[in-house]
């Protein structure tokens, strides 16, 4: 019985040595590795919190986001800042509500480099709980910074009436 226990412990420790998940990359601010261009187009946007929350309710639209990594010519994968081209955005998805379009290249969310597109999906979900957020993209070679402010429905109606 003791031999069996020792063998099991040895096997589990060896397995954990060889099957460790890769270390998570630390967070990197895009502004710390790439300066913001002078000609960046800033797009301010007021979004009704209720409308945004409703767009998140349809989970299949939230998770229906296809991304393809974009590599710059002459860059190596190690040390490069990842960028992802967005595809297959449904018209009623939260991504469309945020102003994103098919073909946009995703650069950062709240100035944080996105190493994994699944984290971007999590950010889009988290944005419903925040008051404001930013997404930086490239569209047709032009860098754009979307600045979002989520407002209650009553405030949105008041701003429309003025």
- Shape assignment: globular
- When the domains are counted, the total is 1
How helical, in percent, are the residues? Answer: 25-40%
How many strands appear in the DSSP assignment? 7
**Portion in strands:** 25-35%
Give the class-level CATH name. Answer: Mainly Beta
Would you kindly provide a written description of the structure presented here, covering whatever features stand out?
The protein has helices spanning 2-18, 30-33, 49-57, 59-62, 94-97, 117-126, 153-161; strands at 41-48, 66-70, 83-87, 105-109, 112-113, 132-139, 142-151. The chain has 162 residues and is of the alpha+beta class. It has a single domain (29-161), classed as PDZ domain (Pdz3 Domain), CATH 2.30.42. It is globular and about 45 Å long.
Helix and strand topology:
Layout lengths: L1 H17 L11 H4 L7 E8 H9 L1 H4 L3 E5 L12 E5 L6 H4 L7 E5 L2 E2 L3 H10 L5 E8 L2 E10 L1 H9 L1
Parallel strand pairs: 1-7
Antiparallel strand pairs: 2-3, 3-4, 4-5, 4-6, 6-7
What are the salient characteristics of this protein?
162 residues, 7 helices, alpha+beta, 35% helix, 7-stranded mixed sheet, disordered N terminus
């Amino acid at each position: 019985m003791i031999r069996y226990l020792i063998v099991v412990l040895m096997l589990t420790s060896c397995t954990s040595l060889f099957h460790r998940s890769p270390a998570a990359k630390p967070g990197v601010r895009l502004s710390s590795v790439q300066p913001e261009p002078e000609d960046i187009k800033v797009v301010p946007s007021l979004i009704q919190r209720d409308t945004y929350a409703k767009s998140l309710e349809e989970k299949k639209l939230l998770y229906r986001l296809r991304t393809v990594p974009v590599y710059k010519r002459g860059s190596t994968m190690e040390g490069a800042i990842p960028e992802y081209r967005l595809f297959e955005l449904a018209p009623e998805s939260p991504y469309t509500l945020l102003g994103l379009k098919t073909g946009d290249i995703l650069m950062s969310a709240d100035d944080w480099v996105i190493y994994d597109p699944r984290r971007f999906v999590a950010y889009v979900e988290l944005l419903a709980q925040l008051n404001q957020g930013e997404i930086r993209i490239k569209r047709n070679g032009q860098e754009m910074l979307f600045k979002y402010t989520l407002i209650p429905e009553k405030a949105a109606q008041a701003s429309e009436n003025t």
